[in-house]
C-alpha cells in the first residue's frame, strides 16, 4: 500500500483539462499542506517522452492500432515506475493529466480494440494501481473540436470534421467508463467557462481529501 493519493484528469481533446490543471494547482497549493506533484501521459519522464514523440509524430501514418496501444502502455509503465510510484511512497498528492481511462476511451472505444485486453494491459503496467479519484471533463464533440480549431487560430477544415466520428466514439467510451465506475469517476461539465470548471474541480478534490 502506498501513502499518497492519485487523482487523474480525463476527457476528449478540447475538454480543456490541461488549462484546468494549470488553474487548480495554485489554489490547491495554497490550501493543502501535502506535496502536490503534477505530471502527464504519455510522457512525464525521459523514456516516456521519447515514446510520446513516436506515438504523436504525424509521419507515423503506418502505425497499427495495437502498436499504438502497446506504446501508450509502455510509456505508462516507465512513468509509473520512475515518477508516480516514488511520489506515492512519499505521500504526495499526484495529479495526472491522462491515465488508464484514456487507453480504454481512445484505443478501446475510439480504435475498436478489445476493452478487456486494454484493462488487463493497464493493470499490468500499473501493478494494479487505480486512481483514488478521476475527474472526467465532459464536452460535446462539436464544442471540443471547435475549441481545438479556435486554439489553432483557423477554420474547422475537412480533416477536423472527419475527426468528429472518432471524437464521438471517445466521448461515448468515457461516458460508459463513468457509468461503470460511479464511485471513482466524477463527471464535470466542461462546456462551462474555465473559471466555473476550475471552481467545481477544486471543490470536488477538497471533498475527496476530507
Ligand atoms: P496531448 O497533446 O497531450 O493531448 P491532450 O492535451 O488532449 O491530453 O496528446 C495526447 C494524445 O494521446 C491525446 O489525443 C489522447 C491520446 N492518448 C491515447 O490515445 N491513449 C492513451 O492511453 C493516452 C494516455 C493518450
UniProtKB/TrEMBL annotation:
Catalytic EC class: transferase
Annotated catalysed reactions: dTMP + ATP = dTDP + ADP
Signal sequence interval, chain numbering: none
Gene Ontology terms, MF aspect: dTMP kinase activity
EC number: 2.7.4.9
PROSITE patterns from the UniProt entry: THYMIDYLATE_KINASE (PS01331)
Record-listed ATP binding positions: 11-18
SUPFAM superfamilies: P-loop containing nucleoside triphosphate hydrolases
Function text: Phosphorylation of dTMP to form dTDP in both de novo and salvage pathways of dTTP synthesis.
Protein family according to the UniProt entry: Belongs to the thymidylate kinase family.
NCBIfam families listed in its UniProt record: DTMP_kinase
Name listed for the protein in its UniProt record: Thymidylate kinase
Organism whose genome encodes this protein: Streptococcus didelphis
